């Protein structure tokens, strides 16, 4: 389980799931604080899907992030250099990302990663985002989830 400050992929920047998490990874990598387990997938997987959706190059985004700026400023740069998706495009994007790993070609990877993490008994974890949150300690175990004080993130 990771113990460093990466945002949940469910957290939105400019209405988009995952974008803030990608910026966190870029910033942590630049400062030498991103654990090596995450290095191999920089610019791949959800990072690659995100930059393709925005029609920017990953290395150009890394350079932009290195110049500083808020998440919103960096997203605005993406909208200028790449494209600014419509409200409908963002809705479809978020639904695609939120459900990734559920009954699709990534499902086997979610099952494998759950097994590697000792979470095979977690039937509540069905998507990649849910696995990420559980692996990084944000999605409570079944015992914790039965405690009404715990708030489980939803799709909004």
Description:
This protein is mainly alpha-helical. It has 2 domains: about 1-85, no CATH class; about 100-155, no CATH class. The protein has helices at about 20-30, 45-55, 60-65, 70-80, 85-100, 105-115, 130-135, 140-145, and strands spanning about 10-15, 15. The protein has a two-stranded antiparallel ribbon with strand order 1-2. Strand 1 and strand 2 (about 15) form a beta hairpin. The radius of gyration is 16 Å and the shape is globular. The model is unreliable at about 145-150 (pLDDT under 50).
Features:
two-stranded antiparallel ribbon; single chain; 2 domains; 156 residues; mainly alpha; globular; 8 helices; 2 strands
Give a quick summary of the entry.
This protein is about 50% helix and about 5% strand. The protein is mostly helical and about 160 residues long.
Overall form:
globular
- Quaternary status: single chain
In terms of DSSP E residues, the strand content is: under 5%
Radius of gyration: 16 Å
Integer tally of domains: 2
Helix/strand layout:
Elements (H helix, E strand, L loop, with lengths): L11 E2 L2 E2 L1 H12 L15 H9 L3 H9 L4 H11 L5 H13 L7 H10 L11 H8 L6 H4 L11
Antiparallel strand pairs: 1-2
């Amino acid at each position: 389980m990771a113990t460093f400050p990466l945002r949940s992929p469910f957290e939105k920047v400019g209405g988009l799931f995952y974008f803030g998490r990608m910026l966190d990874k870029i910033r942590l990598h630049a400062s030498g604080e991103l654990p090596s387990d995450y290095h191999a997938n920089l610019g791949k997987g959800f990072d690659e899907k995100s930059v393709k959706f925005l029609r920017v190059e990953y290395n150009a985004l890394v350079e932009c992030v290195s110049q500083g700026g808020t998440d919103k400023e960096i997203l605005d740069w993406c909208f200028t250099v790449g494209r600014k998706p419509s409200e409908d495009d963002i809705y479809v994007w978020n639904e695609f990302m939120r459900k990734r790993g559920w009954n699709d070609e990534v499902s086997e990877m979610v099952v494998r990663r759950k097994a590697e993490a000792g979470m095979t008994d977690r039937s509540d974890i069905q998507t990649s985002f849910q696995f990420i949150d559980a692996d990084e300690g944000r999605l409570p175990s079944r015992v914790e989830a039965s405690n009404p004080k715990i708030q489980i993130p939803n799709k909004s």
